[in-house]
Amino acid sequence: MNVLTQIESPRVAETAICSQAVLAGDGWMHELLPGQVLRIVDLEGNQAADTLFFYTLNSEDHYSAVATITTQGNIYLTTGSVLRAESGKPLLKIIADTCGRHDTVGGSCSAQSNTVRYAHEKLHMHNCRDTFMLQLAKSGKNFSKRDLAPNINFFMNVPVTAEGGLKFDDGLSAPGRYVEMLSLTHTTVLLSNCPQLNNPCNAYNPTPVQVLIWNK
Ligand SMILES: [Zn+2]
Fold first, then answer.
1. Residue 29 Cα, ligand 1 centroid: separation in angstroms?
2. How many whole angstroms separate alpha carbon 106 and alpha carbon 201?
3. Cα-flanking dihedrals φ and ψ of residue 136, to 5°?
4. 3-state SS assignment for residue 42
5. Could you tell me the distance, in angstroms and rounded to a whole number, from the CA of residue 127 to the centre of ligand 1?
6. How much distance in Å is there from the Cα of 108 to the middle of ligand 1?
7. Over its length of 216 residues, how does the chain's per-residue pLDDT go in tens digits?
């Protein structure tokens, strides 16, 4: 097993210009300015914060897992990772990370994936895609289903097996661990604090996360 690197931030919560809890199952959408820093805190541990990013000035240029992975040559995200858009444009850079492992391969949960992964009777259950769509609709902007692109699952542990498969595994995060990223441009953040009740990653118990923003 790899030893994960944990890098702490010098920022203190008292100087943040925004600090807000996002309850389990809730969503949060926000436009970051260039130079602003966003921290997501896993308040109780082993929660998944499913997150999409868009270049605010052209939202069709959304976060790309493929561009991010191929450019950095690594499938996991941690300090130093540059999160790129479809065009290759750098949107954000992870500058601190006390968890050390974030997934961008597993995708967000949906009614459809709930039926495939768990059971057909899970179809009706609240899922991240529902939360994303609700936040996009409330934004009043011209977003639609086609804007649900590949995402990041912050704090989620999805190891790739020796055979090349994906494994949804026990989380590696813990109460109070956080990831912090610097917005390199105008970046819209769309977060779904995963409501999933069927996945061992969060011990079948979704919990709140805290979002904080600093002017650099
Ligand atoms: Zn989810």
1. 16
2. 12
3. -65, -40
4. strand
5. 5
6. 5
7. 456 889 999 999 999 999 999 999 999 999 999 999 999 999 999 899 999 999 999 999 999 999 999 999 999 999 999 999 999 999 999 999 999 999 999 999 988 888 888 888 888 888 999 999 999 999 999 999 999 999 999 998 888 888 988 887 777 889 999 999 999 999 999 999 998 888 777 777 899 999 999 997
